[in-house]
Design a protein that fits this description.
The structure holds three protein chains of three kinds. By secondary structure, chain A is of the alpha/beta class. Chain A has six helices and four strands, in the order βαβαβαβααα. In chain A, strand 1, helix 1 and strand 2 form a beta-alpha-beta unit. Helices cover 23% and strands 19% of the residues of chain B. In chain B, a hairpin with a 2-residue loop joins strand 3 and strand 4. The chains are: A alpha/beta, B alpha/beta, C alpha/beta.
Chain lengths: 155, 582, 323
């Protein structure tokens, strides 16, 4: 079976979520790989959301906000613009390709742009392949049998 | 109080009242020349002479400075009085034959000529000294005085030089009864860009609709602020309203709503070198032309060129700086219609030929298209094509000192139109400080600088900040009816909010749990709405939930997680992320 | 009546936690007086067999310091869990992974390779690397197998309470000891499971005496690069200080001494990932709206993982690097 990426989209309420809506009402097709979470502003995006998404099975995280200068909240998107590069730097150091995180500006009128952004990002993640976090959970590292063996051997 | 009788009429007056004032109170007119109520009477012209009957004795006195101290009878127009008044007038006619007011008075009294020899037929000074008194006692400048004696006596400046102490207040000319002293302007040429709406007094109501509608003193023009004297306005004010020591003050008001109506700036066409604005004469902006047309302007509303002559032809150029990739891409919306009005004014006030150079004629409103038709019927030349260049008409051919170059797109030809005057319909642009103001008010301004309304269709008056409304051109170019409509709507919105006394808040907003806030102040600078404040005593930050717009920026930034966004809490979003990725 | 039993164990850690316990000074006499210390390898001689021989739940309180990075750590963790009524993760390593969990940035093989073969100060001509089992003339001997990924105590066994800090501050330890004695003597109720003891609910800033203002950062500076203003918030001076995203309780000792907080007390109560939260807070106050300038400023942050997850990598969302 071919690899279908799982992508988390965090979309700002005023521009990108509305842009996604527009893409929908205009019947524009884009891959169904992105699952979106709505926040009021891209400034609400905490790097924790991104890391948690990657840990929870996302192969990529797409964050969309209003274009710089057009933020509904005047400058919320600038805060996002500052957090993402530092998060990418962290991802790179953690051995995760920073391309798995992308910040894009999509306005409420850019249904077509939303379509192309999601399509493009999905394709990029597809080429990057699945993100399999190794040894995330203890049980995966030590199958039940092994843990018991250790315990038994020690006692 | 003493009781006196003037021309058979009785009146009670206070002691020391002059006959002139007592007569005025009875509506009996005593002619005067050198009398000025603001200045101590000097009784020099002797025109106000009257007869006073005290006990049995009759005397001739000057009414302006005769103080009433006991009950007397006064006759203002007895044969004897009139005879003497005529005699005095005849003497004055000989002294100042050029004074128009004396000639008029004489005519009134039935005098045609004087029997006395005329020394100087151009003389108009009667040596009343009002000017000297004004300058010394009221203004305190001591710039003019009497010189010489006897028949050579004259009003003069020290050594007949331009006095250093003269503050150019013009008070001497103001009080001169014969018009002998005149203020003259060194500049005779009419500079259209420097026209104002009439001269400003040192104390004026700034403009008719000013609020508060009271006069204010312009310290830079006021005599009192130059010499410390004068204070005439306070002397004449019956209510003691004049306070010279008032200063500009900054007052703080608690307000419930703000209506932003800061208007616009006029686009300055100087950088468009090809149009020659500021370089060649008789090229005006719309605002300058409008000012000249005002009846209160120094030209009296006449359309004249810098040399004072009427232009033979006028070109009106549309879209200067608007609908222009190099300046403003937007349409300024009002220019087409005021340009048509200008054409109509030129046609109405002069015989000049009018050329309208337009790009697209946008006569969009009620009655506008009809007005356009009317202008066409009035014989205005309408050319579809942008005026691209203005140069002096060196060949002198045609009725104009300037040449306007354009492409007439309807006939597909390049044209040069000779005109005497050009009106540039310059763009409306956002005020230069619009972005600063937007930042102060936490509203948004677009790339052009116009303030952004909360919704282009459904919220054209409100802004993204609760309680701040927009009215007029500050939100985008619009004409007067639209401005009035938006202003009324903004006022209604503000009133609605104020009348309710409470505001309906969105359920989503940020709140800080004090018990977890450590006062790191990271959130303090992040709120675009200044909703976050720092409590210096408790050392914690607070969110004013009424000002919060729920963007959540502070929530994401709060390093202790003390700030929660209602309806968008960390828990909710983490749960969504984890749930959605299963 | 028998005294309550106390166990103290040292897993993957530096030993500072054990010393911190001794640093409670005279209070240690109360401990000795009130408790019967049944297991404290660092201080007294015990054998694992002694513990294994105990009845389940016979130890009243176990203070477990150190991360879990070997089969032995894991075994003892499980053993003490089985024998203890209350198991307390003591110190950063047990609670959040601590410094040892920075090993999660590498693979075990690369660590062994560097430590035994590459480090410039080595003298290992035989290129010996420790092996789990070694044959010697007397037979086969084993040493505990090291893990590729360092874990917190809570990730491998059920933990009742956490006492953070590298090491936990002695006054906080003393307070916890008093509280425990109070509970056991006077039958006070236990705090809810999972409670962080010996710390408060605010962040390090709460105890920091430095003056704080609205923050705008134009460049990140490492502490050695400047002589910091003594009374001004270090972050405002461009120094990455983890204080805002670190639980308080330490008395802000580092910042008082002019060094930035490094985050040893772990994430505050409402935070799920200390490093991510600190990144969010810190990046928010970068004073620029120009992407290129922002990149330049961010380039001045040295070693993000080591800075933001110095003590909490094992406890973070990602837990280890994908290497």
């Amino acid at each position: 079976m071919s690899f279908e990426p799982k992508i988390l989209g965090i979309l700002c309420n005023w521009c990108s979520y509305t842009g996604a809506d527009l893409a929908g009402t205009a019947r524009m097709k884009y891959p169904a790989n992105m699952r979106s979470v709505r926040v009021m502003c891209s400034g609400r995006v905490d790097p924790g959301f991104i890391l948690n998404a990657l840990r929870s099975g996302a192969d990529g995280v797409l964050i969309c906000g209003c274009h710089p200068g057009d933020c509904h909240y005047v400058e919320g998107n600038y805060k996002c613009m500052r957090r993402i590069p530092l998060t990418k730097k962290l991802l790179a150091d953690m051995g995760i390709d920073p391309r798995r995180l992308r910040l894009e500006w999509v306005s409420a009128s850019e249904g077509a742009r939303f379509q192309s952004v999601v399509t493009g990002f999905t394709e990029e993640i597809r080429t990057l392949g699945p993100l399999e976090l190794r040894e995330l959970n203890f049980d995966a590292e030590h199958p039940a049998g092994t843990a018991q063996e250790i315990s038994a051997a020690a006692s | 109080m003493i009781s006196i009788e003037i021309d058979g009429k009785q009146i009670e007056v206070e002691e020391e009242t002059t006959i002139l004032n007592a007569a005025n109170a009875l509506d009996i007119k005593i002619p005067t020349l050198c009398y000025n109520e603001l200045i101590e009477p000097y009784a020099v012209c002797r025109i106000c002479v009257v007869e006073v009957i005290r006990r049995k004795r009759t005397r001739l006195v000057t009414a302006c400075n005769y103080p009433l101290r006991e009950s007397v009878k006064v006759r203002t127009n007895s044969e004897r009085v009139l005879k003497l008044r005529r005699m005095n007038l005849e003497l004055l006619m000989a002294r100042a034959p050029a004074a128009k007011i004396i000639q008029e008075m004489a005519a009134e009294m039935g005098l045609e000529t004087t029997r006395f020899p005329i020394e100087n037929p151009k003389e108009s000074c009667i040596l009343c000294g009002l000017c000297v008194q004004m300058c010394q006692d009221v203004v305190g400048a001591y710039a003019i005085g009497f010189a010489d004696r006897g028949s050579k006596r004259e009003v003069s400046t020290p050594y007949e030089r331009t006095p250093e102490t003269c503050i150019l207040c013009g008070a001497c000319a103001q009080v001169c009864p014969t018009g002998h002293i005149r203020m003259t302007d060194a500049e005779e040429r009419i500079i259209h860009s420097k026209l104002s709406l009439g001269p400003n007094a040192a104390i004026t109501i700034p403009f008719r609709q000013a609020i508060p509608n009271v006069p204010r003193i312009h310290a830079e023009h006021c005599i009192h602020f130059k010499t410390g004297e004068c204070m005439l306005c306070s002397k004449v004010c019956p209510k003691d309203c004049i306070h010279y020591d008032d200063k500009d003050e900054i007052e703080e008001f608690e307000i419930g709503a703000v209506i932003v109506a800061t208007g616009f700036d006029d686009f300055d066409p100087t950088p468009m070198k090809q149009l020659g604005y500021g370089r060649y004469p008789n090229i005006l902006t719309g605002a300058e032309f409008e000012q000249m047309n005002n009846a209160g302007s120094p030209t009296g509303g006449k359309i004249v060129m810098e040399n004072g002559e009427e232009p033979r032809s006028v070109a009106i150029l549309h879209c200067i700086g608007s609908r222009d990739e190099n300046y403003h891409k937007y349409c300024s919306r009002v220019c087409c219609m005021y340009a048509l009005k200008f054409a109509h004014l030129v046609k109405e006030k002069s015989n000049a030929e009018v050329y309208q150079l337009y790009v697209d004629m946008r006569a969009f409103g009620k009655g506008y298209e009809e007005f356009y038709q009317r202008i066409l019927d009035e014989g205005v030349n309408v050319i579809r094509g942008k005026g691209t260049e203005i140069v002096p008409n060196r060949s002198g051919a045609g009725d104009g000192a300037l040449l306007v170059r354009c492409e007439d797109t309807l006939i597909g030809k390049f044209r040069e139109i000779p005109v005497d005057m050009v009106v540039l319909c310059s763009a409306l642009e956002a005020r230069s400080d619009a972005t600063d103001l937007a930042r102060k008010l936490n509203i948004s301004a677009g790339a052009d600088g116009w303030f952004i309304e909360s919704h282009p269709k459904l919220g054209p008056v409100s802004t993204t900040t609760e309680g701040i409304y927009l009215a007029g051109v500050c939100q985008g170019p619009k004409d007067i009816p639209d401005t009035v409509a938006q202003g009324s709507a903004a006022a209604a919105q503000a009133m609605k909010m104020l009348a309710q006394g409470q505001i309906l808040m969105d359920a989503a907003y940020a709140e800080i749990a004090e018990e977890f806030c450590s006062g790191c102040r990271i959130c303090n600078g992040l709120c675009p709405y200044n909703a976050i404040s720092f409590d210096e005593t408790k050392k914690v930050s607070n969110v004013n939930s009424a000002m919060c717009k729920a963007c959540g920026t502070c929530v994401a930034a709060c390093p202790t997680g003390a700030i929660a966004a209602r309806h968008f809490t960390d828990e909710q979003i983490y749960a969504q992320i984890e749930g959605i990725l299963v | 009546m028998a005294k309550p039993k106390l166990a103290i164990y040292w897993a993957a850690a530096c030993g500072g936690c054990d010393i911190a316990i001794l640093d409670i000074e005279a209070k240690i006499l109360d401990v000795a007086d009130f408790f019967d210390v049944v297991f404290w390898p660092c201080a007294m001689d015990f054998k694992y067999a002694d513990v294994e021989a105990m009845e389940d739940k016979s130890i009243t309180l176990t203070l477990f310091n150190g991360a879990i990075r070997s089969d032995e750590n894991f075994h003892i963790a499980k053993l003490l869990r089985q024998k203890s009524v209350v198991l307390c993760a003591f110190g950063s390593c047990a609670a959040d992974g601590g410094i040892p969990s920075l090993a999660n940035l590498f693979t075990l093989d690369s660590i062994l390779d560097y430590v035994y073969l590459q480090a410039p100060s080595l003298d290992n001509p035989g290129k010996t690397i420790p092996q789990p089992t070694t044959k010697v003339p007397e037979g086969e001997i084993t040493i505990p197998r090291l893990w590729n990924t360092v874990r917190t105590l809570e990730q491998v066994v059920d933990v009742d309470y956490l006492i953070p800090g590298c090491p936990p501050q002695s006054d906080q330890i003393a307070a916890v000891v008093d509280a425990v004695i109070d509970i056991l003597k006077n039958g006070k109720p236990l705090p809810p499971k999972g409670t962080v003891l010996g710390a408060t609910e605010k962040s390090c800033c709460d105890e920091c005496p430095r003056e704080r203002n609205i923050k705008k950062i134009t460049k990140f500076i490492r502490p050695y690069e400047i002589i910091a203003e003594p009374n001004l918030c270090l972050m405002e001076q461009g120094i990455v200080c983890l204080g805002p995203a670190t639980r308080s309780g330490c008395g802000a000792k580092c910042v008082k001494a002019g060094m930035p907080c490094r985050g040893c007390y772990g994430k505050p109560i409402n935070v799920r990932d200390q490093g991510a939260k600190m990144i969010s807070a810190l990046a928010s106050v970068i004073d620029s709206t120009d992407p290129e300038e922002i990149d330049k400023i961010i380039a001045t942050v040295a070693d993000p993982v080591g800075t933001f997850y110095r003590f909490t990598l094992a406890d973070s969302f990602l837990r280890r690097a994908q290497v």
